[in-house]
C-alpha cells in the first residue's frame, strides 16, 4: 500500500524540535518545542504517549545519546532521543494503522442515518436532530466538533458530539487541531492551519464548567482521544500506514 505523507506540525510551527528514533534510526515522532511549551505538554511522558498513539508500542522509555534514561517529567529538548522497550531492547517499530479521517465534502446517503463532514447544509434528518441537541447543551461553539468512531448505544447521543463554528469544524475534520486530555481538562492543540489560530493553542477547557446539563451528557473523552490519536499520526508522525 502507498503511504501518504502530510505537512507536519514541525513544518507548520518551525523552530527547534524534539524527535524520537527507534533502534534502527527510524524517526517515530517529531514535536516542535514551541508547540509543547505553549501547549502544556512539555514533558517526556507526552512524547511517549504520542509514540504509543502512532506505533505498535505500549511500554517504553527514552534515552539521550549518551544512554541516560529520561525521566517522565523531564522537559523536551532540541535534539534526538532514542526509544527502547521496558525490557531494554531497541526494536524497529511498526506503525499503527491510520490516520482515519472521513472523506471531505461527502453528502449523506439519502434516507440514511449517516452524517456529513463539514457540510451542515447537506445534513441527514438524524444529524439535524443531533445538532439541535448539541446546541441545547453547548449554546455556542464549544471549539470542537462531532466525535468520530463507533460506540455502543445511540450514535446520536449528545455526549458523542461537540458544537463547532463551521470553519473550526472543517479544520477539526482535517486534523489541523485537536483537544488533548490533561487530568480531566481539555487543552486546545493547534497542529497546522492559519497562524492566527495559534492564539488558541494551549487554552484550557473544563467540561464540567463549560457544558450544560447532566454530567453524563458531557463529551465522551474516549472519542476525543481517538481523534487526537489520528491527528498525532498525521501531524507528529507525518505519514499514513495500512490504507
UniProtKB/TrEMBL annotation:
<dbReference type="InterPro" id="IPR003615">
    <property type="entry name" value="HNH_nuc"/>
</dbReference>
<protein>
    <recommendedName>
        <fullName>HNH nuclease domain-containing protein</fullName>
    </recommendedName>
</protein>
<feature type="region of interest" description="Disordered">
    <location>
        <begin position="105"/>
        <end position="128"/>
    </location>
</feature>
<dbReference type="Pfam" id="PF13391">
    <property type="entry name" value="HNH_2"/>
</dbReference>
<feature type="domain" description="HNH nuclease">
    <location>
        <begin position="146"/>
        <end position="179"/>
    </location>
</feature>
<feature type="compositionally biased region" description="Low complexity">
    <location>
        <begin position="118"/>
        <end position="128"/>
    </location>
</feature>
Amino acid at each position: 500500500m502507498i503511504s501518504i505523507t502530510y505537512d507536519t506540525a514541525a513544518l507548520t510551527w518551525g523552530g527547534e524540535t524534539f524527535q524520537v528514533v527507534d533502534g534502527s534510526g527510524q524517526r517515530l515522532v517529531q514535536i516542535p518545542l514551541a508547540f509543547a511549551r505553549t501547549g502544556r505538554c512539555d514533558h517526556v511522558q507526552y512524547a511517549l504517549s504520542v509514540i504509543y498513539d502512532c506505533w505498535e508500542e505500549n511500554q517504553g522509555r527514552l534515552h539521550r545519546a549518551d544512554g541516560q534514561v529520561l525521566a517522565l517529567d523531564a522537559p523536551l529538548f532540541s535534539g534526538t532521543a532514542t526509544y527502547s522497550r521496558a525490557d531494554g531492547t531497541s526494536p524497529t517499530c511498526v506503525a499503527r494503522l491510520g490516520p482515519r479521517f472521513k472523506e471531505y465534502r461527502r453528502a449523506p446517503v439519502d434516507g440514511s442515518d449517516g452524517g456529513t463532514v463539514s457540510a451542515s447544509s447537506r445534513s441527514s434528518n438524524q444529524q439535524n436532530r443531533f445538532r439541535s441537541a448539541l446546541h441545547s447543551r453547548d449554546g455556542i461553539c464549544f471549539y470542537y466538533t462531532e466525535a468520530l468512531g463507533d460506540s455502543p448505544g445511540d450514535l446520536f447521543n449528545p455526549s458523542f458530539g461537540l458544537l463547532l463554528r463551521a470553519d473550526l469544524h472543517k479544520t477539526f475534520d482535517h486534523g489541523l487541531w485537536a483537544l488533548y486530555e490533561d487530568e480531566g481538562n481539555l487543552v486546545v492543540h493547534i497542529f497546522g492551519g492559519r497562524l492566527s489560530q495559534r492564539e488558541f493553542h494551549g487554552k484550557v477547557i473544563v467540561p464540567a464548567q463549560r457544558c450544560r446539563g447532566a454530567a453524563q451528557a458531557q463529551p465522551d473523552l474516549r472519542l476525543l482521544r481517538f481523534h487526537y490519536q489520528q491527528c498525532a499520526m498525521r501531524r507528529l508522525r507525518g505519514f499514513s500506514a495500512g490504507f
